Amino acid sequence: xxxxxxxxxxxxxxxxxxxxxxxxxxxxxxxxxxxxxxxxxxxxxxxxxxxxxxxxxxxxxxxxxxxxxxxxxxxxxxxxxxxxxxxxxxxxxxxxxxxxxxxxxxxxxxxxxxxxxxxxxxxxxxxxxxxxxxxxxxxxxxxxxxxxxxxxxxxxxxxxxxxxxxxxxxxxxxxxxxxxxxxxxxxxxxxxxxxxx
Length: 197
What we know:
Shape: globular
Helix content: 10-25%
Strand content: 25-35%
Radius of gyration: 27 Å
Structural class: alpha+beta
Distance between the termini: 45 Å
CATH architecture of the largest domain: Alpha-Beta Complex
Strand order of the largest sheet: 6-11-7-8-9-10
CATH topology of the largest domain: endopeptidase fold (from Nostoc punctiforme)
CATH class of the largest domain: Alpha Beta
Number of helices: 4
Order of helices and strands: HEEEHEEHHEEEEEE
Largest sheet: 6 strands, antiparallel
CATH superfamily of the largest domain: endopeptidase domain like (from Nostoc punctiforme)
Number of domains: 2
């Protein structure tokens, strides 16, 4: 029996769903809280309260369904994915956390980095995006951005063979071989830039 039929044709108290209450007749509204959206067994079906079993531990979501007597309107409580700006800030925050770590060619953490290693791991940890540990490979990802159109979170190549993350305001964070560590510095040149997010 589907949810709509159960609500329209049966007494709500017959069904063991905690949280279902009859609203005043004026509003003619039912509120149904349904737990068990997607489980390995195919979900929990409506059943008398004496037969309701605890939901399996693999329940992956909770939906709140608001059902009105005059046509069914449904609103779902859904966890929203992080926005672009939130992902960018997570990428930058991860890179910032590595400031002062040593520069070592070919390293990709957790306390030693080269330029592409820092960028690739920051994007993986902060945004779930996998980038190659190679400046030439990173240069082929996303799309090209001109110097005047740089935005916070863009991947910047101040010179051929070196890469960092643009912070805005003419600054970047990168694993610098010259400084021997991860630093925030002014953008000292511009070879190209890529936008991944």
